[in-house]
């Protein structure tokens, strides 16, 4: 699988929030102090903070240079280990979905914390208003293909696999009315080598995980909690995989966040240095095939929550 050692691209400190950019290709060295905080989107995208002073919060913000398609999550990628001990990244797949995604957003807002949402393109077109709420709350939004197809399926041609990737990003862009982060997670964590190479050529970061909640197999919220901490307490840090599509995840999340706080864990927000550049062909095909309004090209500005370390 095509992966090389990651290098620190740049470090930027914006007030009290530490941001570190990583790349798999050589880049300038050094740390620069930002003179001013990074602006939020015009829509007011900041991590919602209606919780108590003892809320979990966000320890730091890590900015990713996605040049070359870096991979994150030790389940599949061993090169980039930027998390410190007791640090976690919260990730959610398969949304947006009525009821469940809003419940996840509320749980995160109550603890003043944030995550990455890997949206299915079709779901984004079904419920764009929910996905816009995700972005407006300050969360990072990536893609999880157009239809959740397993890209390792030998029945799919290479062109069909690329279509799943590109149409997914175009759909998320349409729903957000802004380009999402170039962050991608393969369905079922199935990584066909040729698609890993393709994502590298498209400068899209690939996400696996360190801790899988197996919430899609769970029948009760407590099972989700137990699955997470059984692994997390062993490895001590990592990217946690959950699904905002799952009812039991939405029910379990308040307890997960409470236990993270009680256990001394800290949340790291991952952001992209720049939004994805979707391909016009897929933007147009999406509009034609689904009869959606014109996809806006308004860019996403960076969002940095200023939190003391």
Along the chain, the helix and strand elements come as: EEEEEEHEHHEHEHEEHEHEH
Please give the count of helices.
8
Evaluate the radius of gyration.
18 Å
Shape: globular
- Proportion of residues in helical segments: 25-40%
Number of DSSP strand runs: 13
The SS-based structural class is alpha/beta
Largest sheet: 7 strands, parallel
> Percent of residues in beta strands?
15-25%
The low-confidence runs, each spanning 5 or more residues with pLDDT under 50, are: 1-45, 294-309
Distance N to C terminus: 36 Å
Give the overall pLDDT as a whole number. 81
Task: Please describe the structure with a list of short key phrases separated by commas or semicolons.
seven-stranded parallel β-sheet, 13 strands, three-stranded mixed β-sheet, 309 residues, disordered N terminus, alpha/beta
Question: How is the secondary structure organized here?
Answer:
Layout: E1 7-14, E2 17-23, E3 31-33, E4 60-64, E5 71-72, E6 87-93, H1 100-110, E7 116-119, H2 121-126, H3 128-136, E8 140-143, H4 158-176, E9 183-184, H5 193-201, E10 205-207, E11 211-212, H6 221-235, E12 238-243, H7 247-262, E13 266-272, H8 280-290
Parallel strand pairs: 1-3, 4-13, 5-10, 6-7, 6-12, 6-13, 7-8, 9-10, 11-12
Antiparallel strand pairs: 1-2
Helix pairs in contact: 1-7, 3-4, 4-8, 6-7
């Amino acid at each position: 699988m095509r992966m090389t050692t990651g290098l620190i691209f740049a470090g930027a400190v914006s007030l009290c929030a530490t941001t570190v950019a990583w790349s798999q290709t050589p880049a300038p060295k050094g740390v620069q102090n930002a003179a001013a905080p990074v602006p939020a989107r015009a829509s007011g995208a900041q991590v919602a903070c209606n919780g108590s002073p003892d809320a979990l919060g966000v320890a730091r913000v890590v900015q990713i240079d996605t040049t070359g398609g870096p991979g994150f999550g030790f389940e599949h990628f061993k090169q980039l280990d930027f998390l410190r001990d007791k640090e976690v990244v919260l990730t959610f797949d398969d949304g947006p979905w009525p009821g469940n995604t809003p419940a996840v957003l509320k749980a995160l807002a109550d603890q003043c914390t944030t995550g990455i949402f890997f949206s299915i393109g079709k779901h984004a077109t079904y419920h764009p208003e929910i996905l816009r709420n995700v972005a407006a709350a300050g969360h990072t939004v990536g893609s999880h293909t157009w239809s959740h197809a397993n890209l390792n399926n030998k029945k799919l041609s290479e062109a069909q696999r690329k279509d799943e990737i590109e149409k997914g990003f175009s759909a998320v862009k349409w729903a957000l009315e802004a380009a999402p982060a170039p962050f991608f997670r393969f369905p079922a964590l199935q990584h066909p080598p040729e698609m890993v190479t393709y994502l590298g050529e498209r400068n899209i970061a690939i996400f696996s995980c360190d801790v899988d909640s197996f919430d899609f197999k769970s029948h009760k919220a407590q099972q989700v909690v137990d699955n997470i901490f059984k692994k997390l307490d062993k490895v001590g840090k990592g990217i946690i995989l959950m699904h905002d599509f799952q009812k039991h995840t939405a029910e379990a999340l308040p307890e997960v966040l409470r236990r993270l706080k009680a256990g001394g864990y800290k949340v790291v927000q991952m952001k992209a240095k720049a939004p994805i550049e979707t391909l016009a062909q897929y933007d147009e095909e999406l509009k034609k095939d689904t009869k959606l309004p014109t996809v806006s090209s308004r860019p996403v500005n960076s969002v940095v929550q200023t939190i003391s370390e």
